[in-house]
């Protein structure tokens, strides 16, 4: 295990094992020490990693004051903890020497301890409360453990100087990293940089890296000129102000972590309950949206609190959308009387039936006064789905449209998913008085008078055609749908409508099974739908306009030739106008369908092919380097390990390759199987020169391919670093990785060198051959 500290000393040159240059992160520097049995500590400074043979504590005579070598240094050393619980973070303890935190609130306890490590052990083994930090006083051999640390105490706590004290934070404390809020510090940057990431498109991507880091990332900075991201476990509250500086002439965007919120939602028989936890003392309130005085829970300096809404309590305004179907909008407001961007609005539904109980969260909440920070999801596997109203050509409509316009409700997954989804229920809502009209039933079929078509597939989207309509009392309409996700492919939903309601060419089946053929009725298998969620569209304004029907820019005008004073002529005129509109609508729909078919045909002839692959393997095997080489043709020594995952598109000839580069650290290997589902090929990277890790790499590969969801997907095994002495060739890789035992799929093996670019061309040829047009 590793302890990370801020020491005022460095080890002298004669204690250095070796220096490693161009190391972009403290984390990678620590990994170098972990892999070297002779290394006992590291010092990290400006991309230079110094491996030491000794540590400062045991060899203080070798220490050199940092005043003699000024700079911002990070120091970490190996430690040994008996019966320590598993922790995959880069370091386990963060120490601050000669400082203490005075605990005045919350759970804390004082216990005896002979050493600082003894004090830390009592912190992580405490059963009364979860311990975030400890202070050990050497002079009195006393130890204080607490549920708080610097961050939980509102981020403005200053450590008190004490020459005999050591302040220790438990970096392995499992804080939630969802629904996190950050605050900007304009043109400032913390000097302590733990990780540098290049080619980051914006600060939101940088935020994703920070939340996915395998250490407590408290701040990040983004340099738009260098498109670079800098992560740090420090913030302005953990370092002195002199270490936070404003670079001259450089536009640096710095953001500090404010708080993260964890939610456990529960639908009980007569109420909805939200159990809320946070990593910073909360001193605000939770209340029903728009009714902050009627149904509210005032919270005073707490890390855990709850919010209850009784369905029969009129003050709490729980809306019942249908029988057994309740909607609750509530706000987590950080300040008691002020609404800020960091506040969170969650819209939740509790749905009850005789089979099960589900809790779902909409993805698009249509927020107008405060922007939602995040959306909750009881099952993390289902992707976020956007519901939008578009024209038949795919373009978004403005907020206003005309009654009778031909429109499409488009359900679009916003992230990569290997699961199918179906639209089970669709409701139109009057945005003024919330009156509702069910237009798709639970089985996904339209309801008379058939205001919409049955759902159908269009690429990865699900679409529903309809002619714009509005309510008599309001011109604003919003759509709400129940979307169900399936663990694999959704069984087809088929609807049989009256012949006079549809044409033979209309699609009435939604199916994720492309080769399914069935002329009869096929009901969906409800047991395969593992999650349902509610999605909402933004409200659209519909206006009556008999003279103009502006449908994608098409303006039609009609003129009557009958006697306007004759009621029969007027009725006949209206009838003919309606018939003409219906004919134009049907003709327009058929014409658009024909155009789409022709475009698809031209795409197959001339447009670029696409493929999707997932790149996995142990850390430091060269996965990210490989992606960089095939994308830019350049090799760089400065590549850093992937934190979580990266996605990058690479175009070679007529093929666009979408590459999912998944982190190889142990904590990320559970993600491999999910991101390998449904891809054209799996690329498994092996460090051919690291024979000690060959067995672990083989076991991970075979464990991955044993997953039934990945059956039949081709695999390309690449043995990287063939330029190094002792690296295995193809024959050695096949034997050591036991590739000959894999008989259920196509498998290929190449020996490559990303540094020398050996066999990169033949690797690309194999990948291009497995593009979508040529793969299974």
Automatic annotation (TrEMBL):
The gene is CSON006616. Keywords: Cell cycle, Cell division, GTP-binding, Lysosome, Magnesium, Membrane, Metal-binding, Nucleotide-binding. It holds the Pfam family PAN_1. The keyword Nucleotide-binding applies. CDD domains: Arl10_like. Residues 4-80, 87-172, 180-260 form the Apple domain. Gene3D superfamilies: Hepatocyte Growth Factor, P-loop containing nucleotide triphosphate hydrolases. It is found in: Lysosome membrane. It comes from Culicoides sonorensis (Biting midge). This is CSON006616 protein. Mg(2+) binds at residues 624, 642.
